[in-house]
Design a protein that fits this description.
Elements (H helix, E strand, L loop, with lengths): L1 H16 L3 H6 L1 E8 L5 E3 L1 H14 L4 E12 L3 E11 L12 E10 L2 E11 L6 H16 L4 E2 L1
Parallel strand pairs: 1-6, 3-7
Antiparallel strand pairs: 1-2, 3-4, 4-5, 5-6
Protein backbone atom coordinates (compact mmCIF):
# COMPACT_ATOMS: atom_id res chain seq x y z
CA UNK A 1 0.00 0.00 0.00
CA UNK A 2 2.90 2.37 0.72
CA UNK A 3 4.33 2.35 -2.81
CA UNK A 4 0.88 2.53 -4.39
CA UNK A 5 0.01 5.51 -2.18
CA UNK A 6 3.16 7.36 -3.23
CA UNK A 7 2.30 6.72 -6.88
CA UNK A 8 -1.18 8.19 -6.32
CA UNK A 9 0.35 11.29 -4.70
CA UNK A 10 2.88 11.68 -7.50
CA UNK A 11 0.16 11.25 -10.12
CA UNK A 12 -1.93 13.93 -8.40
CA UNK A 13 0.94 16.41 -8.61
CA UNK A 14 1.64 15.38 -12.20
CA UNK A 15 -2.04 15.94 -13.08
CA UNK A 16 -1.76 19.46 -11.65
CA UNK A 17 1.51 20.15 -13.47
CA UNK A 18 0.13 18.94 -16.80
CA UNK A 19 -3.14 20.79 -16.18
CA UNK A 20 -5.23 17.62 -16.38
CA UNK A 21 -8.32 18.28 -14.21
CA UNK A 22 -9.87 14.88 -14.93
CA UNK A 23 -6.81 12.97 -13.68
CA UNK A 24 -6.57 15.31 -10.69
CA UNK A 25 -10.18 14.66 -9.64
CA UNK A 26 -9.91 10.91 -10.30
CA UNK A 27 -7.12 10.66 -7.72
CA UNK A 28 -9.74 11.30 -5.02
CA UNK A 29 -12.38 9.02 -3.56
CA UNK A 30 -15.93 9.77 -4.70
CA UNK A 31 -16.45 11.81 -1.52
CA UNK A 32 -12.85 13.03 -1.17
CA UNK A 33 -11.98 16.51 0.05
CA UNK A 34 -9.27 19.01 -0.79
CA UNK A 35 -8.40 22.01 1.36
CA UNK A 36 -6.36 24.43 -0.68
CA UNK A 37 -3.46 26.69 0.20
CA UNK A 38 -5.87 29.59 0.66
CA UNK A 39 -8.30 27.60 2.81
CA UNK A 40 -10.79 26.96 0.02
CA UNK A 41 -12.50 23.58 0.18
CA UNK A 42 -13.61 21.19 -2.54
CA UNK A 43 -15.70 18.16 -1.63
CA UNK A 44 -16.46 15.23 -3.91
CA UNK A 45 -15.22 14.43 -7.41
CA UNK A 46 -17.71 16.69 -9.19
CA UNK A 47 -16.79 19.78 -7.18
CA UNK A 48 -13.07 19.01 -7.36
CA UNK A 49 -13.29 18.57 -11.14
CA UNK A 50 -15.32 21.73 -11.77
CA UNK A 51 -13.16 23.86 -9.49
CA UNK A 52 -9.88 22.61 -10.95
CA UNK A 53 -11.24 23.19 -14.47
CA UNK A 54 -11.99 26.82 -13.53
CA UNK A 55 -8.55 27.25 -11.96
CA UNK A 56 -6.82 25.92 -15.08
CA UNK A 57 -9.03 28.04 -17.36
CA UNK A 58 -8.44 31.24 -15.40
CA UNK A 59 -4.80 31.00 -14.29
CA UNK A 60 -1.32 30.14 -15.50
CA UNK A 61 -0.78 27.64 -12.71
CA UNK A 62 2.65 27.00 -11.19
CA UNK A 63 4.17 23.51 -11.16
CA UNK A 64 4.73 21.34 -8.08
CA UNK A 65 7.73 19.56 -6.67
CA UNK A 66 7.54 17.76 -3.34
CA UNK A 67 9.58 15.97 -0.76
CA UNK A 68 7.92 13.23 1.25
CA UNK A 69 8.64 13.44 4.96
CA UNK A 70 6.66 10.39 6.14
CA UNK A 71 4.39 7.62 4.97
CA UNK A 72 2.44 6.12 7.85
CA UNK A 73 -0.20 3.41 8.10
CA UNK A 74 -3.32 4.59 9.93
CA UNK A 75 -5.24 1.61 11.22
CA UNK A 76 -5.32 -1.37 8.87
CA UNK A 77 -6.23 0.42 5.67
CA UNK A 78 -5.54 4.15 5.57
CA UNK A 79 -2.20 5.78 4.72
CA UNK A 80 -0.99 9.24 5.71
CA UNK A 81 1.59 10.97 3.55
CA UNK A 82 3.23 14.04 5.05
CA UNK A 83 5.16 16.12 2.54
CA UNK A 84 6.49 19.57 1.81
CA UNK A 85 5.80 21.09 -1.57
CA UNK A 86 6.98 24.02 -3.61
CA UNK A 87 5.61 25.68 -6.71
CA UNK A 88 7.53 27.14 -9.64
CA UNK A 89 5.55 29.79 -11.52
CA UNK A 90 4.73 28.97 -15.14
CA UNK A 91 7.71 29.53 -17.42
CA UNK A 92 10.31 29.54 -14.64
CA UNK A 93 12.70 27.05 -13.05
CA UNK A 94 12.74 28.72 -9.63
CA UNK A 95 10.36 28.23 -6.75
CA UNK A 96 8.28 31.03 -5.32
CA UNK A 97 9.01 30.71 -1.55
CA UNK A 98 5.67 32.37 -0.74
CA UNK A 99 3.94 29.30 -2.22
CA UNK A 100 5.79 26.65 -0.20
CA UNK A 101 3.37 24.36 1.62
CA UNK A 102 3.12 21.50 4.04
CA UNK A 103 0.81 18.83 2.66
CA UNK A 104 -1.06 16.06 4.42
CA UNK A 105 -2.63 13.39 2.26
CA UNK A 106 -4.86 10.62 3.59
CA UNK A 107 -5.39 7.69 1.23
CA UNK A 108 -7.83 4.81 1.55
CA UNK A 109 -8.68 1.82 -0.61
CA UNK A 110 -11.58 2.38 -3.00
CA UNK A 111 -12.34 -0.57 -5.21
CA UNK A 112 -9.04 -2.03 -6.39
CA UNK A 113 -7.01 1.14 -5.92
CA UNK A 114 -5.83 3.60 -3.32
CA UNK A 115 -7.48 7.00 -3.58
CA UNK A 116 -7.14 10.30 -1.75
CA UNK A 117 -9.76 10.88 0.94
CA UNK A 118 -8.20 14.18 2.07
CA UNK A 119 -5.57 16.55 0.73
CA UNK A 120 -4.69 19.54 2.87
CA UNK A 121 -2.14 22.17 1.84
CA UNK A 122 -1.01 24.60 4.52
CA UNK A 123 1.23 27.59 3.80
CA UNK A 124 4.77 27.01 5.07
CA UNK A 125 5.04 30.59 6.33
CA UNK A 126 7.13 29.91 9.45
CA UNK A 127 6.25 33.36 10.84
CA UNK A 128 9.20 34.94 12.61
CA UNK A 129 11.54 32.13 11.52
CA UNK A 130 12.90 33.17 8.11
CA UNK A 131 15.86 30.77 8.38
CA UNK A 132 13.48 27.77 8.42
CA UNK A 133 11.58 29.12 5.41
CA UNK A 134 14.86 29.68 3.54
CA UNK A 135 16.08 26.13 4.34
CA UNK A 136 12.82 24.67 3.06
CA UNK A 137 13.10 26.63 -0.19
CA UNK A 138 16.69 25.41 -0.64
CA UNK A 139 15.61 21.83 -0.01
CA UNK A 140 12.74 22.05 -2.49
CA UNK A 141 14.95 23.76 -5.08
CA UNK A 142 17.22 20.70 -4.91
CA UNK A 143 14.21 18.56 -5.87
CA UNK A 144 13.30 20.95 -8.69
CA UNK A 145 16.83 21.05 -10.09
CA UNK A 146 17.17 17.28 -9.84
CA UNK A 147 14.42 17.14 -12.45
CA UNK A 148 12.10 14.91 -10.42
CA UNK A 149 8.58 15.49 -9.20
CA UNK A 150 8.90 14.00 -5.72
CA UNK A 151 11.70 12.72 -3.52
CA UNK A 152 11.28 10.38 -0.60
Amino acid sequence: MRRESLVVYENLLRAWNTRNPQAFAEAFTADGSSIGFDGSQMNGNDEILSTICRIFDDHATPSYVAKVREVRLLGDRAILIRAVAGLAPAGTRELNPALNAVQSVVLVPEGDAMRIALLQSTPAAFHGRPEIAARLTEELNEVLHAGVLILE
